[in-house]
Amino acid sequence: MGEEAHRSVQELAASLGALPPEFVRPEHEQPAATTFPGGAALDVPVIDLSEPGYGARVAAAARDWGLFQVVNHGVPSPVVAELQRVGREFFALPREEKERYAMDPASGRIEGYGTKLQKDLEGKKTWNDFFFHVVAPPAKVDHGVWPRSPPEYREANEAYCRHMQRVARELLGHLSLGLGLEEGAMAEAFGGGDLVFLQKINLYPPCPQPELTLGVAPHTDMRVAGSTRCTFLCRVEYSSCL
């Protein structure tokens, strides 16, 4: 494999004064075209999970929009901060250490450390590095691909996942009721205790021309190969300059 295949966006960002052409998105995908400059932004539903009766609003937002944002979800700020901390510490490791956990899609290994220096179908690249792995259920988890440095990585991920499982159960319960089903119907249909949770920690290094590129391009989230059950993809996203 060539040198570029091993080089991360993080390393590339440290040596650039201008954005390489392969990172420049088509004009309609550039950030200036997607942030509603000079006009009103779309009023995407925001659901406050601490308010009484929020379940009905969850069902309505799913029916009318197909997506919504939740706030006051009960995930403690220290849990989120710790997950971000271990993620930053991992990305600060030397390249050789990070590559011990590199994903290898050619061999079927989709979990681990990766970068978006690979081109998409339009010949473009996105501005991020990431770490991706299954966090639940235990039977699907391979701790062999999880970083051993920092040593708190596993504890931080598992603590965050427990809260994500709780939030997912609550939302699936309200969606079930909104469909006129028993509260546990959707969770059971999607696998019950075998519901798969995927964790993706994205790193967005400082960019010399952020108005021209994207950290995540338009996409459809994946599902676990060979599975007909529901998969939850939990993302933790932050800039390396924080």
Spatial arrangement of strands, main beta sheet = 3-4-5-6
Largest sheet: 4 strands, mixed
Secondary-structure arrangement, i.e. CATH architecture: Sandwich
* Rg, alpha carbons: 19 Å
Query: What is the count of distinct domains?
Result: 1
Would you state the CATH class?
A: Mainly Beta
Give the total of beta strands: 6
What fraction, in percent, of the residue positions are helical?
25-40%
Order of helical and strand elements = HHEHEHHEEHHEE
Walk me through the topology:
Layout: H1 3-6, H2 9-13, E1 46-48, H3 54-64, E2 69-71, H4 77-91, H5 95-98, E3 112-115, E4 129-136, H6 153-178, H7 185-189, E5 196-204, E6 231-239
Parallel strand pairs: 1-2, 5-6
Antiparallel strand pairs: 3-4, 4-5
Helix pairs in contact: 3-6, 4-6
Could you give a short description of this structure?
Residues 44-140 form the Non-haem dioxygenase N-terminal domain. By secondary structure, this protein is of the alpha/beta class. Helices cover 29% and strands 15% of the residues.
Structural account:
The protein has a single domain (3-12, 42-239), classed as Jelly Rolls, CATH 2.60.120.330. It contains 7 helices and 6 strands. The longest helix has 26 residues, at 153-178. It has a 4-stranded mixed β-sheet, covered by helices on one side. Strands 1-2 form a two-stranded parallel sheet. The chain has helices at 3-6, 9-13, 54-64, 77-91, 95-98, 153-178, 185-189, and strands at residues 46-48, 69-71, 112-115, 129-136, 196-204, 231-239. Helix 3 crosses helix 6 and helix 4 packs across helix 6 (153-178). It has 242 residues and is of the alpha/beta class. Keywords: Iron, Metal-binding, Oxidoreductase. This is Non-haem dioxygenase N-terminal domain-containing protein. Residues 44-140 form the Non-haem dioxygenase N-terminal domain. Pfam families: DIOX_N (PF14226). GO terms for molecular function: metal ion binding; oxidoreductase activity.
